């Protein structure tokens, strides 16, 4: 029996015939845009990125990185608030304030030097933890509400 089940899993998939109406009507445009993007990437963006890497000193590249990371701090703080993590949000807001003022608009990571650690929060994390957080709150509310309903039924008895 196990061999039959495993053999069924190993069978080649049956492909359905592709009908003319199944194609994406925008496919030719999508392919043209994709090809243009790839050509621009090869002709313009790759040489710029290579020159950035080859000719700018590491200190300048680090400063650019610090400034762009500083611009992300308000987004990280908002993300932390949505996840119900006010302490982490305050940490991100503090980093943004320190680096924007004492760090010359974020070019220097003064907050890191002053032991205010950075943390990241991407929106995949937001989706997982925030939605889990709100689902847990909803669950607690439902349990509380159900216990109130049960208590009312118990107090009034079956006949009201």
How would you characterize this protein structure?
The protein has 160 residues and is mainly α. It has one domain (41-156). The chain is built from 6 helices and no strands. It has helices at residues 2-10, 27-55, 58-82, 86-101, 110-113, 123-156. Helix 3 (58-82) runs antiparallel to helix 4 (86-101). The longest helix has 34 residues, at 123-156. The radius of gyration is 28 Å and the shape is flat.
Strand and helix layout:
Layout (H helix, E strand, L loop, with lengths): L1 H9 L16 H29 L2 H25 L3 H16 L8 H4 L9 H34 L4
Helix pairs in contact: 3-4
Which terms summarize this structure?
6 helices, 0% strand, mainly alpha, 160 residues
Brief rundown of the structure:
This protein has 160 residues and is an all-alpha fold.
Tell me the number of structural domains: 1
Strand proportion, as a percent range, falls in: under 5%
Specify the helix fraction band: over 70%
Structural class: mainly alpha
How much is the radius of gyration in Å? 28 Å
Low-confidence stretches: none
Distance between the termini: 58 Å
Order of helices and strands: HHHHHH
Molecular shape:
flat
| Sheet with the most strands, sense and barrel status | none
Give the number of helices.
Answer: 6
Task: Determine the mean pLDDT.
Answer: 82
How many extended strands? 0
């Amino acid at each position: 029996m196990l061999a039959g089940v495993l053999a069924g899993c190993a069978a080649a998939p049956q492909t359905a015939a592709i009908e003319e109406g199944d194609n994406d009507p925008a496919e030719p445009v999508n392919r043209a845009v994709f090809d243009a993007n790839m050509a621009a990437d090869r002709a313009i963006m790759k040489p710029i990125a290579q020159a950035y890497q080859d000719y700018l000193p590491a200190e300048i590249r680090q400063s650019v990185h610090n400034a762009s990371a500083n611009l992300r701090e308000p987004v990280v703080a908002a993300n932390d608030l949505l996840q119900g993590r006010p302490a982490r949000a305050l940490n991100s807001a503090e980093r943004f304030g320190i680096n924007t003022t004492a760090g010359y608009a974020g070019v220097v990571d003064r907050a890191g030097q002053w032991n205010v650690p950075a943390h990241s929060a991407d929106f995949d994390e937001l989706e997982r933890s925030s939605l889990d957080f709100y689902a847990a709150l909803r669950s607690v509310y439902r349990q509380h509400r159900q216990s109130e309903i049960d208590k009312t039924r118990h107090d009034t008895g079956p006949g009201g």
